[in-house]
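Internal tracking record. Fields below are filled automatically when a chain is submitted to the structure queue. Please do not edit lines marked as system-generated. If the sequence contains nonstandard residues, flag them in the REMARKS field before resubmitting.
Queue: standard
Priority: normal
Entity type: single polypeptide chain
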Amino acid sequence: MPRLFTAIEIPKDTALSLSMLRGGLPGARWIDPENYHITLRFIGDVDGLMAEEIANGLARINRPPLQLRLSGLNAFGGNKPHSVHACLQKSRQLQELHAEQERIAQRIGLKPEGRKFIPHITLARTRGAKGPDVAKYLALRGSFSTLPFTVSRFVLYSSKASVGGGPYIIEQEYPLIAKSSSPGTRDDLDHVSIV
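SYSTEM-GENERATED OUTPUT FOLLOWS
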């Protein structure tokens, strides 16, 4: 059974900027830059039939490209931080893309996502780091930001059960291009298959 999730890939120049933030936090386990992504919808372990339904449902998304910008760093876990991440500036288009994927997932029988959608890029797992060290790291680097970047697709990733941080395999990609809805035309992605 594949473990699936949808995500936005991070452009190489943005990933390079993020990779410069590695280090300076004892006990942190840093994510490899090639595994940076913004999770849109975690799907989980599903059988092949459900994977096909998910892939086909996602193929019907009709949205234009969007602009995103990273701004600031933060940690999840409160007083016992378990990860450090880069934050994104608010984006209505990103929220709408997530909401549409959530509706598709529920329509085909998946349970609603239990956590609030907080778009981010995980940089490090910090279960081995001390809270004060994480706070100091964030204080020194919290003003991090990038130039805006264009997102022209999202992907359906699969991963093997692991401690986290990859490796991830792209099972299907979905362009963010407003598709015409002319009568009598058939979309190339009416049926997609996950290998």
